[in-house]
């Protein structure tokens, strides 16, 4: 019986360029050449969902990575230079951000270090949950670009941030680009000084070192060079509790900025273009009328004498119409009410929460012993707090403008509606026909203030009037407000302007009466980004190269596909704090394993071994084979103790057998090899010294399987879920295997032992064991799939 049980096989319509198993579930994410991201379940390789490419997000997927808890999938897009975080439950973008260079590799790790300080922090409840009200969900009837805050009865912010334990998304790109994002959301390190395009990277779980493999193009005439670097990230490790707290705050702030941005987007959608109808109609009236009387005088005559000129009557009865006026009034009231609710419940709540978290961050920055080394700057955070205060002031100003506009328009539309009914000689409802002197004065003041012709406005905006005052606050432009608030007679404003001490006081938030809400929001985002960028720069500069080993020359003729999958492969053994690098060289068929300790000070020796697969299988596979041995096509760490490999016969014949095998590290790092030490010459590339590398010929017994009728080339594995996925060289043919499968004889023996244990039990116990069997004929094979179905019951294709 084959060692591994095949549980699925599929011929896919598009070529697959990336595969990544979920760390917690029987799910595998795929990316194909057309830019589509797919999620499949282990059982029958059933599709759960697919996310098609789009012009807005991007169409060229370059890498995939799962968050350690398996709830978020990240992927990078080269054409738009964006990183997308996608929900595992449904194909929706939860969060996205832009990067400076196209991403070529990403790694998402979780910190496993424990300390008393961290443990107390992990178990302490976040005080913001006690002190701040929960942010209200955004209305579902707006087409916001991201839906992370529109789900009812679920805290999407916490879902996006995941567990309080620190996890980090490490991104590598072209020209030495490396960045680290806490919780996959906010940048905590920008590492500079590197060269080449990143092929693989791995941040150790203790945050002590970062291993990177890059491809450096030395010159156009020579082949690119593959080099391994080990970077010292000990600052992150030394200040792990402080980094965790700071990253948590950064991510809260980043999420709140997105919440405010989406709230403002909803407000812009609530404001309708129909509200501009009055301005455009009045402008057209000015351009077409033949009289010298101003528009304001025309409406004043209608208000005071009840008579309108023929031109005004034509405007009101033919263009605006009674029905149109009624619709305009309803639209204005509905729109203004919606915007008002969004400002009060969403914009102000988000701003106050932002102010709270920035104030806490300022307190952390003032504890210089702990946070100064990480680059937290109290003065920069104070500036961010100030600009958030200005944003809150501008939001309150918008509320006042909405409130006065609703009152003014309600009175104006009511009067104009009655006047138009009189013109058409229609019946006027008695409740509308009563107008007091106070009402007339109110409408007259409204006409005086809003119906003045402004020729300079026509040159700016193409209209003579700005009757509607709310929309200008929601315009995303740098121009000053067309109709800023009237501050004449405001005693507090005049008092501040005349007081030099108070005007410059840090206790008062600055006020920008000439600017829109969008402008102040962009100013706020810019200052907060600059404030939070400094720690990323400081931490990034602290990272330095501790070890460098040029490995080999890469073939300049390799196509893009082979670059997407090929070795080297990096692995972090959390239990023993080791970094492993797997790679092959074209000089021979061996696979090379480089072992480095994550603690730089303990990595004096180079644990480098070559593994030769020899002819350990050919007699069992094909007695007539004339293979001289086996070469490694692909290799990945299955777990800390095992490497999964794809092997191919070294033979001149066509139709070479491909083999899926498990290579235990115990068979490589034996007592005999423990004394072997490779004397590396730093002045030469490794491929020029491969003759001196200790070589161990391995023999694998039982843990292999011939991949019949398949030209296997690549493999993706998940040791936690005990599964592997093999991809053929044409990138379309996939097979899925369960790796740890007991044979039928062992299963039957276990069943007999279990039955023997039940002998002597009472009838009730016997009934229970019959109703709920723990093991059966398919104990070794069906259980993982059943668990997957149970855990992923919410995932339906």
From TrEMBL:
GO terms for cellular component: anaphase-promoting complex; nuclear periphery
Pathway as given in its UniProt record: Protein modification; protein ubiquitination
Segments for region (Disordered): 741-797
Pfam families: ANAPC4, ANAPC4_WD40, WD40_APC4_C-half
Keywords assigned: Cell cycle, Cell division, Isopeptide bond, Mitosis, Nucleus, Phosphoprotein, Ubl conjugation, Ubl conjugation pathway
Subcellular location(s) per record: Nucleus
Domain Anaphase-promoting complex subunit 4-like WD40: 19-110
GO biological process: anaphase-promoting complex-dependent catabolic process; cell division; protein K11-linked ubiquitination; regulation of mitotic metaphase/anaphase transition
Sequence ranges assigned to domain Anaphase-promoting complex subunit 4 C-terminal half WD40 in this UniProt record: 570-738
Main location: nucleus
Anaphase-promoting complex subunit 4 long domain sequence ranges: 228-426
Keyword match Aminoacyl-tRNA synthetase: no
UniProt feature, compositional bias: Acidic residues: 741-754, 787-797
Tagged with keyword Phosphoprotein: yes
Function statement: Component of the anaphase promoting complex/cyclosome (APC/C), a cell cycle-regulated E3 ubiquitin ligase that controls progression through mitosis and the G1 phase of the cell cycle. The APC/C complex acts by mediating ubiquitination and subsequent degradation of target proteins: it mainly mediates the formation of 'Lys-11'-linked polyubiquitin chains and, to a lower extent, the formation of 'Lys-48'- and 'Lys-63'-linked polyubiquitin chains. The APC/C complex catalyzes assembly of branched 'Lys-11'-/'Lys-48'-linked branched ubiquitin chains on target proteins.
Family membership: Belongs to the APC4 family.
Name of the protein in question: Anaphase-promoting complex subunit 4
Lineage, broadest ranks: Eukaryota, Metazoa, Chordata, Craniata, Vertebrata
